[in-house]
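Q&A log
Question type: sequence-to-structure
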Amino acid sequence: MIGSALLGAPATKRVEGGLGSIQARFKVEHPGFALEVDLALPGRGISALFGHSGSGKTSCLRCFAGLDRPVDGYLQVNGELWQDSAQGYFLPAHKRAIGYVFQDANLFAHLTVRGNLQFGLKRIPAAERRIPLQQAVALLGIEHLLERLPSHLSGGERQRVGIARALLSSPKLLLMDEPLASLDLKRKLEVMPYLERLHEELVIPIIYVSHAPDEVARLADHLVLLEGGKVSASGPLKETLLRADLPFVLEDDAEAVVEGQVTAHDEAYGLLYIQLPDSAIQLRLPHARLPLGKSVRVKIKARDVSLSLQPAQDSSVLNLLLARVVDWINVEGQAHVLVRVQVGGEQLIARITRYSFDRLNIQREQALWAQVKSVSLLSPA
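Response status: OK
Response body:
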């Protein structure tokens, strides 16, 4: 059975130089649709497959799992060869060390949560188990649910149990096919912190399928954009979101994702301080206290960034950041210019009018001030 569980794990072929990476090439032909991708993904962290319905996300995931056999394919995962058409080699699905999480947790209705977890655990020989039951239970926060039946769980709780069951199969690759798509906003927010914990605490690489930009921005390290069964872009999340040749940066809600560390909390005003990497620059935003030193992600929309040649005086804008112009994008037929600026070790994008662009006489490498009206925390919830 294929569900939120492992599909076996016998000895596999090794390949030289494959540690720390996932190499995948799939060519699949269906009536009315063809998938043709060639990917180099990091061997740790979350790689998101993003695109509209019908772009090929799930088809690509099924190839990773071995559920579809491409007419031409190659797959190695951190030094293990799972498929190579040139050699006539194909490791079937039930022999791949893969955990697969669907939109629906697919729990056994007649088993308690503990029974569902033990089902996943028992499929793996004791000597090959790398994640004990108690660790999976703690990671997903389901200790208090162990004796319940699935019918007595919320949608978010069922999905957390399904993810824990997948982890108990000790996978070397975790596949997640829109795991939050069937949940309402409240349940999504309930599950999201646990997905972040997986990212922070486990070394298992995750391929995460989604069409929700906020999910991708909050979780992913690497972004793959699929269109019509082909890869239109693949690269680190923060860089790919700001590429001038991709649609993200041209949309009305274009945004940058930046990372930083919590350095302080102003109790009197309820402000959280986040220091950007490779600089002393700090962002301030209204938020409850978080542990000092905690790594967080924030998003800053292009429409919330303005530029000035001088630091504003007596402004209500919280974040006035010294910046350097990287480049800009002129959008034909629009009254705006998108200006990319470097702030510490991160990049932002500002959406300003052509009039302002000319009045400020914007030049590459120019030093100026970025005024950030609003900053939104992506993690934690």
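Response note: The CA atoms of residues 103 and 181 lie 6 Å apart.
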